[in-house]
Design a protein that fits this description.
Strand content: 15-25%
CATH class of the largest domain: Alpha Beta
Strand order of the largest sheet: 2-1-3-12-4-13
Number of domains: 2
Mean pLDDT: 88
Order of helices and strands: HHEHEHEHEEEEHHEHEHEEEHEHH
Number of strands: 13
Low-confidence stretches: 1-13, 16-27
């Protein structure tokens, strides 16, 4: 059981005051049932450089359609960071959470989360991370990153931190020892912005975020090159707290499997990570396949994270 201090920190990270609730302990320990009195609390990782309202709008049509179909009621919020969302679910303050595989796996290991659904696009539930560089930075391969400045996203992000760092290490580059400097920017969008503004030479981000930045004209693709592309990564999952009632979980899984056929939602409104359009969702997901993805960033140990944080704090 998680102590009240931990639960309080998770609530504050969501912008909530413990005084809002008559009993913090009860709130943190009891999962909600989806009734009007106890709506299912959905907590999302922060938008990729967008606003809290923008992130909620990406998912509201989906949960609204599920609500009309099943009668379940949802309360959708956005955490201040990936870590805040992880803490909220382990404190019992989130019934459903959305985050990347690198955040899901440790949360699942603690017994706080199980897979609920993954987005599907073109018949697959995968996406890609990449290492990008400015054309004028003189970086043609991972080995060329030595001596350069690097931008990374949130420490708990799969595709703007864990996978790019793992690719660097596998490619013979120790970011702590070999990089001139490291910036932890907090999001994919900020990584790409730092590249676009010439503040760094190299950055790690998802290809979804790169394409989004190009489409929004936030970056000039003629000035940025792809240095490396990752192997397929399982799509960021929606995860459910194991203590949510089995009958509620069954309703949710059936709903996500049929979201693309539900009335009250158009194909254009079915969105996933970063607000990207997806074809639908599937609840036919495998914990084993998600666990296998951990091998992609086994090299990114807690010590590596600590060392990168120290280097990033050095000016």
């Amino acid at each position: 059981m998680y102590p009240k201090q931990f639960a309080r920190r998770a609530l504050l990270a969501l912008g909530l005051s413990a005084a809002t609730f008559a009993s913090l302990g009860v709130y943190a320990q009891a999962q909600h049932d989806g009734s009007a009195a106890k709506p299912l609390r959905v907590v999302l990782i922060p938008a990729d450089g967008g606003t809290e309202d923008g992130t909620k709008k990406d998912f509201e049509p989906i949960f609204s359609a599920i609500s009309k179909s099943t009668g379940l009621v949802f309360d959708i919020r956005v955490g201040q960071s990936y870590g805040a969302v992880m803490e909220a679910q382990c404190a019992g303050a989130a019934d459903i959470a959305f985050y990347g595989p690198a955040s899901y796996l440790p949360t699942h290991k603690k017994g706080c989360a199980n897979l609920l659904a993954l987005a599907v696009k073109h018949g697959q539930s995968v996406y890609y991370s990449g290492i990008f560089a400015r054309i004028d930075a003189g970086v043609s391969s991972i080995k060329d990153i030595k001596g350069k400045t690097i931008a990374l996203g949130d420490l708990n992000s799969t595709s703007s931190f864990a996978v790019p760092v793992a690719m660097m290490i596998e490619g013979g580059v120790n970011p702590v020892r070999d990089a001139k400097a490291i910036q932890l920017t907090g999001s994919h969008a900020n990584v790409l912005k730092a590249l676009a503004e010439g503040l760094v030479d190299v950055g790690g981000a998802s290809f979804d975020s790169f394409e989004k930045a190009v489409n929004q004209k936030a970056i000039d693709p003629s000035k940025i090159k792809v240095v490396a592309k990752s192997a397929p990564i399982p799509y960021p999952p929606l995860a459910i707290h194991p203590k949510v009632a089995p009958e509620v979980q069954a309703k949710l899984r059936d709903a996500f499997n049929n979201i693309d056929k539900m009335p009250g939602i158009s194909k254009d409104q079915i969105r996933g990570y970063g607000g990207a359009k997806v074809d639908g969702y599937t609840s036919n997901v495998s914990e084993q396949e998600m666990a296998a993805a951990a091998k992609m960033f086994d090299l990114v140990t807690d010590q590596v994270k600590t060392d990168i944080m120290k280097k990033a704090s050095t000016r």
